[in-house]
Amino acid sequence: MSSALTSMNSANPVTSASHMSHTRLARGISVLGAWLLALMWITPLLYAIWAAFHPSEFATKLVLNAPVTFANFVSAWEAAPFASYFLNTTILVTGILCMQLVLCTLAAYAFARYEFLGKNILFSLVLIQLMVMPEILIVRNYQTLTQLGLVDTLFGIGLPYFASAFAIFLLRQTFKTIPAELVEAAVMEGASQMQILRHVYIPLAKPVYLAFALVSVSYHWNNFLWPLVVSNSVGSRPLTVGLQVFSSTDQGIDWSIITAATLLTSAPLLIGFLIFQKQFVQSFMRAGIK
Amino acid sequence: MRYHVVRNVYAYLLLLPAFVFLVGFTHYPAMATLLDSFMSTPRAGRAASFVGMQNYQDMLADPIFWKSAINNLWFALATIPVSIALSIGMALWVNDKIAGRSFLRMAYFLPTVLPMIAVANIWIFFYTPGYGLINQVLQALGFSSQNWLGDPGLVLGSVIVVAIWKEAGFFMIFYLAALQALSPSYKEAAQIEGASAWYFFRRIQWPLLMPTTVFVLVNALINAFRMVDHIIVMTKGGPDNASSLILFYLYEIGFKFWDQGYASVLTVVLLLILAVVGLLQFFILDRRTHYQ
């Protein structure tokens, strides 16, 4: 590698000068490309903001002095039970997260701290869920819910996600890095197994818990297919399904109201993301590194 | 010895609650689906009966299945390389000392946090014939307006663009994490030696990013067979099944036609694809560890 690099350096001063301007040009094009791509990437959001905050006659044309209005949000909010949908999504997302945290902490603790018969096989069985997510198995899982009498309930929507292979994997990795001396010290002081988990393992894994929480919340806030199949009333419909029902029933293609509803649905995540941008990106990064 | 038994039991007890849900909603349904795929669909007054390979034969004779499978193949072949290439570009830019770096990072990552079903509504407007944003731009440039979601020749490409837009920023994060973990001495050495940015990327960064690429590739493959939200919202698989994907077709068969036997076969197909992806990952990862 270093020989290849030094051969690059043997250019004479003249070509080296043209090389300089060449790289500056390349650099300029690169920066321009980065910005163009970024603009393309946020255009849908910018458009949604434009259409939602202006009267519908301006939805399809950009007039700089168009009046700003909140009427689209009011119409959207009144046209569908968005308050219930918000409540449903909030309950669903927090419920799933709480169950995941408890169940997966216990499982990860078992995998990280104990030796037992069939440990590797059981761990492989966990990892299968990373590939085969519950939504692939919608038909059979729907039958299970029917048998349990949980169709059209929030509990039924959350149920398949209570155990997350991703969380178990992530926490196990973290728990395994906890120094044995800390655990031994706790044992010496007579701490029980559960106390060791609570006072040694969990506090040291805090950043990973935060990372997983952000990933889980944004995943389930946005989840659509399974809730669409399971819910069929206002009482159990999360925001995503509610928005779909709202925008597919005849709104007379009033884009302004649909975009207002779209922004309403995304707002909590969007605002959360803009405020905690750094944590968000870092969490996803942390969750991605094994 | 007795101590060991106790610890074994203790570990199993810790695992039990998670396994109830894992087995109940992943392993059991996967096995049950396999059995169901050899059974007829139970109808009113008629229980499911064993039909052997009948459902499989029906599937192989079903042109809509083939259409969906081929669409899905193109969907994967287009979304995966493009979104990976874009995500690497994004990560390199954002990792660099570029003007407006935090804005760029925010812009790239934004689609990841927005619900697909919400942004699909905005994309429907972009693609609207006549006054949709893309057609307005095309017409301003002197081209003719296209019916992006209504033309069987254009619709698959249109939903592919949305998928790439949605996932490239997500993959960027993994590359960004990997780039930040690379030792800065590589970069310093390359600068001292006067290596071009492209040379540095091709000979140093790209090989070092290989494990990340494998990870992202596997995720992209899974996504290619799992992303259907935008199909349901934007096209419903149409026109003429031109944008139907396997999971979308499975959803239609399972919950529009309530044909459980046939839906089970389609699920088995998806499970097989995921199994292949899993094995692929296993072997590539295996090879990777050999030369590290």
Write out key terms for the chains shown.
heterodimer, A: about 290 residues, mainly alpha, 15 helices, globular, B: about 290 residues, 13 helices, about 0% strand
3D architecture notes:
The complex is a heterodimer of chains A (290) and B (292). Chain A has 290 residues and is mainly α. Chain A has helices at 2-8, 13-52, 71-79, 82-113, 119-131, 138-148, 154-158, 165-176, 180-188, 193-204, 206-222, 225-230, 239-248, 255-275, 277-288. Chain A folds into 2 domains: 1-40; 74-288, MetI-like fold. Chain A has 15 helices and no strands. Chain A is globular and about 75 Å long. Chain B has 292 residues and is mostly helical. The longest helix of chain B is centred in the first third of the chain and has 35 residues, at 2-36.
Any chance you could write out the topology, listing elements then pairs?
The complex is a heterodimer of chains A (290) and B (292).
Chain A: H1 2-8, H2 13-52, H3 71-79, H4 82-113, H5 119-131, H6 138-148, H7 154-158, H8 165-176, H9 180-188, H10 193-204, H11 206-222, H12 225-230, H13 239-248, H14 255-275, H15 277-288
Helix pairs in contact in A: 2-14, 3-14, 4-8, 4-11, 4-13, 5-8, 9-10, 11-15, 13-14
Chain B: H1 2-36, H2 54-60, H3 63-95, H4 101-113, H5 116-127, H6 133-140, H7 155-181, H8 184-193, H9 197-208, H10 210-224, H11 229-234, H12 246-255, H13 260-290
Helix pairs in contact in B: 1-13, 2-13, 3-4, 3-7, 3-10, 4-7, 7-10, 10-13, 12-13
